[in-house]
Design goal:
Helices cover 2% and strands 43% of the residues. The protein has 269 residues and is mostly beta strands. The protein folds into two domains: 178 residues, Jelly Rolls (Sandwich), CATH 2.60.120.260; 75 residues, Immunoglobulin-like (Sandwich), CATH 2.60.40.3080. Strands 3, 5, 6, 8, 11 and 13 form a six-stranded antiparallel beta sheet that branches. Strands 4-7-12-9-10 form a five-stranded mixed beta sheet, with no helix packed on it. It is elongated, with a radius of gyration of 19 Å. It comes from Wenyingzhuangia fucanilytica. Keywords: Signal.
């Protein structure tokens, strides 16, 4: 993440999964950290029209959005193509976004989308502030719009002016450090993992074998998709798991021992 040391300490623990007494909720949180070399399923909009954006990976771990504004540019957009694009909007109503916005004109974050191939709806407008370079703000909000219900087939995050004016400051950027979509009201600080004991996995991403390295005597090894569905159970003594049968996506590996539960994310390529 692109953070100062103090920010890293403060923002040290948002769990990827909601756990109760060491057990996984039926539905996991959906989280995007932008720590790797990809945009994690999000796409940009080229051109100089009403909706525009250009993506780049900041080397310190954030998705950097820039734009070349045109005469009608009013929306700096992120198109969701991952699990959020087929989201159960009846359950996932809580969102946390951590961004650095250096535009003096952009002051609204909008969640926009479409449910069951219906009309596009602006579900919520969240006021945001202007940041100095390398400083981040955290926005936690609940979508209470009654139209945010059912299954989404389109999901967008839009940055815009509250007065609906044209965006002209082409030297500004928005850095997106983290997006978290949750069924829980307890959005606080974030973490990529839950960790009662140490373990590592490699390679990540992987297309076949996932290696586990831990000193723990494990009671179970389980793999879940991002909707919280268990997709694989491995032998507890196994140090190598064959994940070749899984679809290309992001998954969660959960290890349980007498010392507790530890969780990490991995990508099946």
């Amino acid at each position: 993440m692109k953070k100062t040391l103090l920010q890293k300490i403060i923002l040290s623990a948002f769990v990827l999964l909601t756990l109760s007494t060491g057990k996984m909720n039926a539905q996991a949180n959906i989280e995007y950290t932008f720590d790797g070399a990809t945009w994690e399923g999000w796409t940009a909009q080229a051109g100089t029209g009403a909706f525009v954006s250009t993506f780049a990976n900041n080397p310190n771990g954030a998705l950097e959005i820039s734009w070349t504004p045109g005469a009608e540019t009013r929306n700096i957009i992120m198109y969701g193509n991952g699990p959020e694009a087929t989201l159960n909007a009846s359950a996932y109503k809580y969102i946390q976004v951590i961004i650095s916005n250096t535009s003096s004109q952009i002051d609204v974050l909008r969640i926009r989308g479409r449910v069951s191939e219906g009309a596009f709806t602006n579900f919520i407008d969240v006021p945001i502030t202007t940041n100095v370079a390398d400083s981040f703000s955290t926005y936690n909000f609940e979508i209470t719009n009654g139209s945010f219900d059912g299954t989404l087939d389109r999901f967008q995050i839009v940055f815009r002016r509250s007065d609906n004016g044209v965006i002209t400051d082409d030297m500004a950027t928005i850095e997106v450090d983290n997006i978290l979509i949750s069924t829980s009201t307890t959005l606080s600080t974030k973490n990529n993992n839950v960790s009662d004991f140490e373990f590592s996995i490699s390679p990540n991403p992987t297309n076949d074998i996932l290696n586990i390295n831990t000193q723990e005597d494990l009671n179970s090894i389980e793999i879940y998709d991002l909707l919280g569905k268990k997709v694989l159970t491995a032998n507890k003594s196994s140090k190598q798991i064959n994940v070749s049968a899984l679809n290309s996506s992001m998954y969660i590996i959960k290890l349980t021992s007498n010392n507790g539960v530890s969780i990490k994310r991995f990508i099946k390529s």
